[in-house]
Amino acid sequence: MTNLSPADIAGYLRQLGEGALVTLELFLTSFAAAFVLGVLIGVITLSKNRFVRAAWRVYASIFMGVPSLLVIFLVYYGGSAMLSAVFGEFGAAIDISPFGAGVAAFAAVYAAYIAELVRGAIDNLPKGQFEGARALAIPPAVMWGKVILPQAMRLALPGLVNVWSFMLKETPLVSLAGLQDLVASAKIAAGATKEPFLFFIATALVFIAFSALTLKLATVLEIRLDRGIRRTPARASAGAEA
Amino acid sequence: MSGLPIDFDLAWRSLPELLAGLQVTVLITVLPLLFGLALAFPICFARMSARRWLSLPAELFVVFFRGAPLLILLYVVYYGFGQIALLREGPLWLLFGSPFGCAIVALTFNHAAYMTEVLRGSLLAVPGGIVEASEALGISRRHIFIWVKMPLAIRYGLKAYQNEVVSFVKGTAIVSVVTITDLTAVANGIFEQTYDPFTPILCAAALYWAFINLLRIGFELWGRWLGRHQREEASPLTAEAPRRFGLRRLSSLAKAML
């Protein structure tokens, strides 16, 4: 079926490997940025202030109701203009790379979803946790960092895993803004060799394998975060799940 | 440059073009939603079958078409199937010969894989006792499925279905890569003609937003209609119901994506 020489295959594999690293870097950077931003937004918008809540509703509605691809294009095409509007001359000098546009767009979109999860998780914590921290005169920063968020993360984990695997499947969109990632390399290789099935299906399998691997890790993390709650021994519950 | 980044004159002039793009987007959403749902039923039955030779292929189908990014699926169908000589001569070329057909096929398989899981989850959520009671009453298996299991499964799975439909609509934005002039492609084209980075994309975003929130409202009404028997019991809530229809309600609908 294939008429590629081993040297060709090695060359394309190197190119695909480089692309895969770019994809991985983009994905991890975007997820980290979205996570930090999402937790911050989630905590801040729990405030009782009406304007903060209204701003949150508008933000969440917009970014949950618009395709990520459009947000990527908006940041990529309009990013320089936006930066120069904010920072003046200095901002206009910054060139927006596809990578930067992708990270900014994914961070903005997925921060909304993560903030929603974090808000829900914090809402579901017993009120006594807040009252207890206050009664013990724990400063707010320590209360959030050591008392509230660790418990909220346990509740938010299944949703975060969803966001993780969903975001992974959206990272190839940045190749449409010109990023030389795994999918872009696969497209070049497929076009040059006339072997589209080989390269695209291999690429798809890389995504599936990465997703499966990280879901396994998420299960381990979940068992670990649940260790304070669980009554039955770890082995028994892990066995029941499988 | 004025204070607002939007050029209203350009927005007004490009509106007919954008609406034509929206039509394509709606078409490329509705067709795969119908085909995908129809395909999901047999795949789901195979997936839930006790026979391994039936359930294994169905499981592989779901893992592949859910796990692979939509963009790659589209590339596989668009660039891949064109290579198969057998297909070129066969009647299926009508489908795979056009970008539109390819996009429909890729989106349908993707949606079918997601819907298989939604359907399976909803059917598994139906309490076993109800099914056993129906069997004890001598109701045929077909009637149990249509009149007992499905009505309950729709109620359990509505939220998941809504989330899948909403994320599916957002996913259709990529069909522009195979030269289909959907809403995203139209906005991109206007950008390339005018070099206005904000107006066309923000207008397209507004149309997507309206389309998606219309769907959300539809699902909300459908869910309320399905749950009408529960509302009558909790009468104090009904007086409040119309007011709950604001932006907050809509944004809270998007709680989980998958």
From TrEMBL, chain A:
It is a multi-pass membrane protein. The keyword Transport applies. Keywords: Cell inner membrane, Cell membrane, Membrane, Transmembrane, Transmembrane helix, Transport. The chain crosses the membrane at residues 20-46, 58-78, 90-115, 136-157, 197-221. SUPFAM superfamilies: MetI-like (SSF161098). The keyword Transport applies. Residues 20-218 form the ABC transmembrane type-1 domain. Signal peptide: none annotated. It holds the Pfam family BPD_transp_1. It is found in: Cell inner membrane; Cell membrane. NCBIfam families: HEQRo_perm_3TM. Belongs to the binding-protein-dependent transport system permease family. HisMQ subfamily. This is ABC transporter permease subunit.
UniProtKB/TrEMBL annotation, chain B:
Gene3D superfamilies: MetI-like. Residues 18-220 form the ABC transmembrane type-1 domain. InterPro entries: AA_ABC_transptr_permease_3TM (IPR010065), ArtM/GltK/GlnP/TcyL/YhdX-like (IPR043429), MetI-like (IPR000515), MetI-like_sf (IPR035906). It is a multi-pass membrane protein. The chain crosses the membrane at residues 20-46, 58-81, 93-114, 165-191, 197-219. It holds the Pfam family BPD_transp_1. It is found in: Cell inner membrane; Cell membrane. PROSITE patterns: ABC_TM1. Belongs to the binding-protein-dependent transport system permease family. HisMQ subfamily. NCBIfam families: HEQRo_perm_3TM (TIGR01726). This is ABC transporter permease subunit. It comes from Ancylobacter koreensis. The lineage of its organism: Bacteria, Pseudomonadati, Pseudomonadota, Alphaproteobacteria, Hyphomicrobiales.
